[in-house]
Amino acid sequence: MESKRxxxxxxxxxxxxxxxxxxxxxxxxxxxxxTVSVVRxxxxxxxxxxxxxxxxxxxxxxxxxxxxxNTKTIRHLLAQRIKNQVRVIPELNFYLDDSAAYAAQxxxxxxxxxxxPADENDGVDDETYPN
Length: 131
Prior knowledge:
By secondary structure, the protein is of the alpha+beta class. It has one domain (4-112): GMP Synthetase, Chain A, domain 3. The protein is 44% helix and 18% strand. It has 4 helices and 3 strands; from the N terminus they run αββααβα. A 3-stranded mixed sheet has the order 1-2-3. A hairpin with a 5-residue loop joins strand 1 (33-41) and strand 2. The N and C termini lie far apart (47 Å). The mean pLDDT is 87.
């Protein structure tokens, strides 16, 4: 359970990183469209785990690797934006957010299920459950 301070800090980082990915470093990742899904910060606010959704890319893992190689640049841009609001600029760890792909996979599995319709008197005895 995150404290209110952690929640506020993670929202700030999420908002600023989203803007950085959309406006300042988009050229580093080609056609890939990167959004910041979730940011989780440690209790001491020194580490931020950033979950990214990557769209319009041939290989999401390759884009994530490129993001990780540019972590220093991204952290520097973040520091320029939030230096007056925080004491410490957190270390950034980037991860793929695969929740959308997981949800699509679950939908596909559910759609493939063949569930027969239930009978009206499906094992229910009128004597057992009187009106």
